[in-house]
């Protein structure tokens, strides 16, 4: 007899298949308003991975402005009845979880900027910036600023933010520096005519203000809390109204609306500060308080796009910028290496808001259009794949599209 203990018997072990890496959990957050201005608007969460609607909920009446906090976990809307709604970015959101805050009479809020523990609202009706805290946001004080406050520029963790005021008709605008440590105004600086928007670099060292009427960009050195030297003003195209940063290339990408009848443009501006890489050619570099590096403020390219460009969104890897052309119902794709338009993508309706996000194997660009579509009077959000620079799908929104933001860049 032969024992089986000396005989090799193969053993099969199951190995779980290894698929592609999971997509990060992130969302596109869109708001839409009802054609009836007395009916609440809708917030819609769309899953990045599957382009599926996860949840909808009611927000305030006639919402017209959307913002997310820097962590991408709380959203805010400004509404036509002078209220602010706030809500968690969660696929389990329900209407009864949406919180509401009422502002003071006559505020006519123009924009909202959540900054850590504080939330700032530009109130042109009161020539003030409202400072709110808590959940829901509760008014703590109003900071007096110049006439026609429209926007607050800042980034999370910066020592100060800047409130943009347009001034009276025909006059120059101004910015007021808000010290975020104690919420006081430390200085007021002049800018150009018709300032409408601004961006701050992620390190908080420079702020750029779009002066629509003058066709210029005002540059603020937020370390010294003064206009930048030696270059405080950068001429760009006609009617600059929006901008986004390409941090990996040290560039500012500005959308110039133009005159509405001819093509608008994008100005691509070099904005390097002193660094280890730039120090050899900049003998005055001070690493603790960087000055402008050689080439700072140079417009390296002016790229024609469609008619009436209204917004621009930059992929954070610095490869491309996407420009929403309102009058043409298109999105122009600008290659930031060659500084040329490499694609023009038709979208449904007239685009009014655009947001871009990275991803693997593809990033996505979300475009909200304001047009109503018969017979349901619903708008759509167009989703563009960045690996193909082509439309992958459209998502119906309940009501008239207003804005879209993404929870991660």
Can you characterise this structure?
With 409 residues, the chain is mainly β. 0% of the residues lie in helices and 52% in strands. The protein has no helices and 33 strands. The strands form 8 sheets. Strands 16, 17, 18, 19 and 20 form a 5-stranded antiparallel sheet that branches. It has a 4-stranded antiparallel sheet with strand order 3-2-1-33, with no helix packed on it. Strands 4-5-6-7 form a 4-stranded antiparallel sheet, with no helix packed on it. A hairpin with a 4-residue loop joins strand 14 and strand 15 (184-193).
Provide a concise account of the structure shown.
The protein has 409 residues and is mainly beta.
What's the overall average pLDDT, rounded? Answer: 91
State the helical fraction.
under 10%
Q: Which strand-content bin applies to the residues?
A: over 45%
Terminal residue distance: 72 Å
Count every helix, treating DSSP H or I runs of 4 or more residues as helices: 0
**What is the rounded Rg?**
24 Å
How many beta-strand segments?
33
Structural class comes to mainly beta
Low-confidence runs of at least 5 consecutive residues: 19-24
Main sheet record = 5 strands, antiparallel
Q: What spatial form do the alpha-carbon principal axes imply?
A: globular
Present the secondary structure layout.
Layout: E1 27-33, E2 40-47, E3 53-61, E4 63-68, E5 74-79, E6 83-88, E7 99-102, E8 111-115, E9 118-123, E10 128-133, E11 138-144, E12 149-153, E13 160-165, E14 172-179, E15 184-193, E16 195-200, E17 206-211, E18 216-221, E19 226-227, E20 233-235, E21 240-246, E22 251-256, E23 263-270, E24 299-307, E25 309-314, E26 320-325, E27 330-335, E28 340-346, E29 351-357, E30 364-369, E31 379-385, E32 390-397, E33 400-406
Antiparallel strand pairs: 1-2, 1-33, 2-3, 4-5, 5-6, 6-7, 8-9, 9-10, 10-11, 12-13, 13-14, 14-15, 16-17, 17-18, 18-19, 18-20, 21-22, 22-23, 23-24, 25-26, 26-27, 27-28, 29-30, 30-31, 31-32
């Amino acid at each position: 007899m032969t024992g089986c203990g000396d005989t090799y018997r193969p053993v099969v072990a199951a190995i779980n298949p290894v698929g592609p890496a999971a997509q990060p959990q992130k969302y596109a957050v869109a708001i839409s308003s009802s054609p009836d201005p007395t009916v609440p608007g809708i917030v819609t969460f769309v899953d990045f991975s599957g382009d599926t609607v996860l949840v909808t909920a009611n927000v305030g009446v006639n919402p017209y402005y959307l913002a997310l906090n820097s962590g991408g976990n709380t959203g805010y809307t400004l509404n036509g009845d002078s209220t602010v709604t706030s809500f968690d970015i969660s696929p389990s959101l329900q209407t009864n979880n949406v919180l509401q805050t009422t502002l003071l009479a006559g505020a006519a809020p123009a924009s909202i900027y959540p900054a850590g523990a504080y939330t700032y609202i530009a109130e042109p009706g009161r020539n003030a910036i409202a400072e709110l805290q808590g959940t829901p946001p509760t008014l703590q004080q109003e900071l007096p600023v110049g006439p026609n406050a429209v926007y607050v520029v800042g980034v999370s963790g910066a020592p100060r933010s800047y409130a943009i005021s347009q001034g009276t008709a025909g006059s120059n605008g101004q910015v007021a520096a808000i010290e975020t440590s104690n919420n006081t105004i430390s200085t007021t600086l002049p800018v150009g005519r018709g300032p409408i928007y601004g961006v701050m670099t992620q390190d908080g060292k420079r702020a750029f203000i779009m002066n629509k009427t003058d066709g210029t960009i005002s540059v603020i050195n937020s370390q010294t809390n003064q206009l930048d030297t030696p270059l405080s003003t950068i001429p760009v195209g006609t009617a600059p109204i929006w901008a986004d940063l390409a941090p990996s290339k040290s560039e500012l990408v500005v959308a110039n609306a133009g005159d509405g009848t001819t093509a608008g443009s994008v100005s691509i501006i070099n904005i390097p500060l002193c660094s280890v890489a730039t120090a050899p050619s900049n003998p005055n570099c001070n690493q603790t308080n960087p000055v402008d590096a050689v080439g700072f403020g140079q417009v390296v390219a002016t790229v024609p796009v469609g008619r009436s460009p209204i917004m621009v969104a930059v992929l954070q890897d610095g490869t491309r910028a996407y420009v929403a052309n309102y009058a043409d119902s298109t999105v122009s794709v600008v290659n930031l290496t060659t500084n040329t338009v490499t694609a023009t993508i038709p979208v449904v309706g007239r685009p009014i808001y655009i947001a871009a996000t990275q991803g693997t194997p593809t990033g996505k660009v979300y475009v909200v259009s304001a047009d109503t579509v018969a017979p349901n009077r619903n708008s759509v959000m167009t989703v563009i794949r960045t690996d193909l620079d082509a439309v992958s799908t459209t998502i119906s929104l309940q009501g008239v599209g207003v804005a879209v933001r993404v929870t991660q860049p």
